[in-house]
Amino acid sequence: xxxKSGQISYYVYINGRILGKVDKPEEFVAEVRDARRKGLVSxxxxxxYYPNLGVVNINTDRGRLRKPYIIVENGKPKLTADIxxxxxxxxxxxxxxxxNSIIEYLDSEEEENALVALYESDITGKTTHLEVDIASxxxxxxxxxxxxxxxxxxxxxxxxxxxxxxxxxxxxxxxQRFDSRAYMLFYPxxxxxxxxxxxxxxxxxxxxxxxxxxxxxxxYGYNMADAIVLSKGSVDRGVGRSMFYKxxxxxxxxxxxxxxxxxxxxxxTAEGYMGEHVYSKLSDDGIIEPEMDVIDGEALxxxxxxxxFLEENIGTGGLEEKMRDDSxxxxxxxxxxxxxxxxxxxxxxxxxxxxxxxxxxIPENGDKFASRHGQKGVTALIVPQEDMPFTADGIVxxxxxxxxxxxxxxxxxxxxxxxGGKAGAVSGKIVDGTAFVEEGTKRIANYGKTLxxxxxxxxxxxxxxxxxxxxxxxxxxxxxxxxxxxxxxMVSNKIQVRSRGKVQILTHQPTEGKARQGALRFGEMxxxxxxxxxxxxxxxxxLLDQSDKTTVLxxxxxxxxxxxxxxxxxxxxxxxxxxxxxxxxxSYAFKVLxxxxxxxxxxxxxxxxx
Amino acid sequence: xxxEPKKYSVExxxxxxxxxxxxxxxxxxxxxxxxxxLAGIESTISTSGLPRxxxxxxxxxxxxxxxxxxxxxxxxxxxxxxxxxxxxxxxxVKMGDIAKxxxxxxxxxxxxxVLDVQELESESITxxxxxxxxxxxxxxxxxxxxxxxxxxxxxxxNLKTIRSxxxxxxxxxxxxxxxxxxxxxxxxKKNGEFYxxxxxxxxEGIIGVEGVxxxxxxxxxxxxxxxxxxVEAARNALAYELGKTLKEQKISVEDRHLRLIADAMTAGGSxxxxxxxxLSGEKHSVFARAAYEETLKHxxxxxxxxxxxIMAGVTENILVGKQIPLGTGAVRLAIKKEDLAxxxxxxx
Lengths: 610, 348
Fold this sequence. Notes:
The complex is a heterodimer.
Chain A: E1 10-14, E2 17-22, H1 25-38, E3 46-50, E4 55-59, E5 66-73, E6 76-77, H2 81-88, H3 94-99, E7 103-107, H4 108-111, E8 116-117, E9 129-131, H5 140-143, H6 153-165, E10 181-185, E11 193-194, H7 196-200, E12 210-216, E13 227-231, H8 232-236, E14 242-251, E15 262-263, H9 276-279, E16 293-295, E17 299-301, E18 303-305, E19 324-325, E20 328-329, E21 335-345, E22 351-361, E23 368-371, E24 376-383, E25 390-391, E26 399-401, H10 412-427, E27 431-432, H11 440-453, E28 461-462, E29 464-465, E30 477-486, H12 491-494, H13 524-533, H14 536-548, E31 549-555, E32 561-565, E33 570-572, E34 581-587, H15 588-599
Parallel strand pairs in A: 1-4, 8-9, 11-27, 12-26, 13-24
Antiparallel strand pairs in A: 1-2, 3-4, 5-6, 5-7, 5-9, 10-14, 12-30, 13-26, 14-22, 15-18, 16-21, 17-20, 18-19, 21-22, 23-24, 23-30, 25-29, 28-30, 31-32, 31-34, 32-33
Helix pairs in contact in A: 10-11
Chain B: H1 4-8, H2 16-31, H3 50-57, E1 68-70, H4 80-90, E2 93-94, H5 95-98, E3 99-105, E4 110-115, H6 117-122, H7 127-138, E5 141-145, E6 149-153, H8 159-171, E7 173-175, E8 183-187, E9 194-198, H9 203-206, E10 218-219, H10 222-229, H11 231-248, H12 255-266, H13 286-292, H14 295-305, H15 314-320, H16 337-342
Antiparallel strand pairs in B: 1-9, 1-10, 2-7, 3-4, 4-6, 5-6, 8-9
Helix pairs in contact in B: 2-12, 3-11, 10-11, 11-12, 13-14, 13-15
């Protein structure tokens, strides 16, 4: 775009559209920025120039990511100690700083033209801006985790995911809400180690975790490969305990032809009546009462619906209307207590009933926990308190974390939080874990000093005693306090077993999926493994005998599938009307295939070889 | 003690094809992500990794990057000048490589070829030679024009003919062997012998050149090997190329698996791919073919021609729910227990 020789002129784009040319881009850009600082153009305008492309970009549109910086002029930041004092005493506010061009927002393009100093001491003559806070080089998510500068970026990405999955006080009005699924942590705590960003966004008023006493120790191999060991004593006292809420809802729908559903106890005459025991807990109006214990298969909302297909029942003329049972039943594998029942109405003036079930989720083997350093783990053992290792002070760790989970993941922030958390816990003070507040070594020294003041070892190591023998461990064990989140992946919501059960109507093969009490798929690769091993009978058992085996009658003469006439007590071939048939075991899927081929007017025949 | 070959021999009924397929397929899943080239080592960078495996297994008629290694007779193999001369005989030069441009004069029915003098020099071809080639190949009158031009009389003023003639001229092979590709001279570091690497696969042409060692010529084009040396050579070449490609990716697969795959692909006397148009598509069983791809096509064909499935394979037996004729299913009862009692010992 730029001319090769002589006067170079730069194209000016405004929001990507060409506006004109300028000959002296640096002066032009400086002028725009000056105008912005003087308030002549909006503070939302950003301008960037690219000497290598010969382009000046002015951006005023929405959706740009912008970040505030302190303006530096002549080697001096415009935010002086004076102003800071006034802001602190509430004389001035942030908007004042913006209006008076002490702080300005840059977008990612304009930032490329700026020379930003991280600390005030780094400012040179060329510096144009100063970071408001060094921690602001990270985004919000990273800044809410403690000691982020000591953790690897990959772990930060994981942390961001775990934070979303953490149980906590998700809403203060949870008792009035009918969320389809909700998890409420008992005794949520504020973290001992917090950060500036965490404190400023008000999540401390609805926290989503608890401070665990953690010892970095193995326990008979039970915490290998990201497993964790919990203390039964802690679990019994409420560590990681939570409540699971689930809402079942139903509506009295209207159908064309004036028919509608009705909430009521389904009469035994209703089509699809599931038996008296299913409806035994419903009250007279057909709806279950609060504080009733329910298990899977029991009805929560009794409802009858008009029959699915209109039948011509002339003559019978019964006064009784034909009905179909359409009750809401607790899903398989679930149980709990009816927490609350509400009646309401939809915009279409149909009745709606919502039933909220609550059930306690005490941590058990297979439940998932994660710290704020992307360190997740699954409970593998809950040890009775008397068998857990303890310190000389009688402190029993809530959680035993395998030391091997630290070095390969490069989450040194986890170790720092253990130390910082311990220092905070003994001194009763909240510890600041904001990024770059201090150097790591200084932090360790400070925490060590605190710990020594309270009679602890300065690096957080302590002699642990084996709970089973009472003997001290030869090595000292590093322990501390870490903020742990309980994640909502719990075995009790996922566990499913089946040894026999439902099959699909079409193929006679076992159903699939937890909701349908399904079996696990013996897939192609598993099939390959058995073929490769040569286990032909095992393969046949899996794929035929344990699946869709059917016995059919096949005509010796024409090879078509026949049937057994129970009146004449004789097998019949429908093609040649003979009765020379043999029983053959085939897969139902093959029978369906033959049926479908026949439906295309093709006659498949099976030749038998005896 | 079992002898070494006996220890590793397969037993009757072993599903060797399945094991071979899985043994190549499983490491193949690891190849996808790390497909990089060792740039600059060979004069021509050849396809490697998964694309190459796919190319071999699908029996592609032409490889994406054909390469021929031409070794020379002992007498000249260490004489660079002679090797260079021989390389020039092989090196394929097209008119497009040496012509700056081809100008068509439609009103006079003439085509002017403007040659690049530098290119001519580096390929040691003269203007006259080029003109003679054009004259011979197309049967048209040519005239030299200046020191780098050739005038061709197309003999017609038909636009279409002139254009097609000029395209033909551009694609014409001026020197070397057609399909041999660009030849580069390389030196064996061990014994100092020179050899030629050609970026083509016309081994039929190259092998005819005086001074080429006919016993050591080598190409990565399986079909070229098949055409010149026959199906057994093609089978060996296929197994070798598969092994080489896997080895480049630092994947070790037992050679016999690869040889089995090569055997299966060449068993019919020609090279067949493994997919729809090859091994899988030519299975005997209707059900096995229908279970793979183009279900309807195979079922309709079976219905129209009254095909009979003899249930000898794996897929069809699993489909109907029979024991597969492999492994423990490969054996059959020869005689029933009751029948055994009927057999009387021979009286002496």
